[in-house]
Known about the structure:
The protein is α+β, with helices and mostly antiparallel strands. Helix 1 packs antiparallel against helix 9 (250-266). Helices cover 44% and strands 16% of the residues.
Amino acid sequence: MSGFSRRGQMSERKQFRAIKGTRDILPPDSALWNWFEHTAREVFESYNFGEIRLPAFEQAELFYRSIGGETDVVSKEMYYFQDKAIPELEVLREQIRYATILPSVPQTVDHFVRELRKFRQLLDAGFAAGEVPKHDLNVGTSQNLESEANQLQELQSVESSARNNDMISFVASQIKRHVGILHLGEPLALRPEATASVCRAYIEHNMQAFPGNQKLYYIGPMFRRERPQKGRYRQFYQIGAEVLGQSDAPAIDAEVLEMLLVFFNRVGLTRTTLYVNSIGDKNCRPQYVELLRNELRRVKDRLKEDSQRRIETNPLRVLDSKIPEEQPIIETLPRISDYLCDECRAHFAKLKEELNLRRIDYKENWRLVRGLDYYTRTTFEVTAEGLGSQNAVCGGGRYDGLVELLGGAPTKGIGFAIGTDRSILSIEESGNAPKLGGLAVYIAWMGQASYPTAVSIARKLRSAGLSVELPPEEMKFKKSLGLADKLGARYALIIGEDEVASRTFTLKRLADGDQKKLAEGELLEYLESERRR
Ligand code: ATP
Ligand code: MG
């Protein structure tokens, strides 16, 4: 029980807390989140997008390959872990690693070889079932183990000698080392974003054979180990949409942006700015990146450490720098817009036409390059006010080569991811958050004789779609109404002996104390019409 004390032995009381960078979203805030996500569903579905539900973890390699090993997201922020190995395999490995081998006692060597053969059989079965990763290190090591087992057996069969015994000890120690370096569990990662998963699913389900473009959206948590601060968490939430298919028509980009802004408008996220850029494609970007790298090398001494490193690893990212001293230098660097190939230039021009047609306001920002390697051509970002330096609420762009890079057919793609945490912060700070739902009716019943009526009317009101609180135990009248007030109920429905006798209810509006006596039918009708107001 390493590190944990058994329940029975616990001496001090431990106070558990949410892991740093994660948080609970409690009611009533969660209602705002639900409304935000529900509105996204409505808007996206009106553009004929359908929801894709994805796993929260994937093979780590999916992210290395798509996002890029040099990016911060993968190299610094990704939650990476090795899956648990098949238990028998793990146990056998430990037995082999810690076995006692006495070369002068043949039984110990025989036993060791038998265990090793069993281990190799299980390992092969694990490879075949896809439960043990079949990468070079594992496959090579497994082959070494095979020849080492044979070697041991041969050494066993010849006459025992001091030299022979030394060889047996040597080979056995090699075997122990080799079983130790095998990766028995698959390398996995908590997803830092979901575009790679969408593309993985697109390929896995052969979605290019489905009719038309695939228009998909997803909603869910993402994980990045960043420094937690306002608007930056280690588990955060995104709503994203992707279009995958054979066409890269700029109208697709424009429609995606229109949908995004319609959504932001609908949820009251209005003080926003949309920035767009084109970062070229595989024909023109490499030349530009080389040019940029050369220019950056000339000003290297005037840049800070991060940017200096990025000159070699990812020069485009230098353009993203927010460091004040670097700004005047960056302003003098060559701009991608001057180096786009004809196709990319035409694509970007058409996109801007399409945006104008749809009356979408945007600003061009030549420095908008985005942090993930897979983007091509169109890139965009939306910033919102009231968020300080974490002001990006949405990022996205085209990724035409990504599906192919992941082993699929040539496919065009574009998408975005909205940061829900920050969007909600911004909506709250702007005072645009709607007042949602809340408790409609609190049932103040008194006397056991009125309880059956209270239970029955509670069920009827609830099935009419109202939120109803029915106290489970009898309370004093004053206390009951006091609680109704504190819970923020709009009405208290009073049921006492008089009401039961006269088959009526007293409905009290808590805002102004206005009171009415109503029969059951009238009550339902009245509350129904109130609900619709
Ligand atoms: P930033 O530059 O702010 O780190 P990013 O470029 O890493 O953002 P993307 O990968 O484009 O972000 O993700 C899209 C959106 O997801 C961002 O615009 C932001 O709203 C949100 N987001 C990204 N990382 C976090 C985080 N750690 N906490 C909360 N929201 C985040
Ligand atoms: Mg980031």
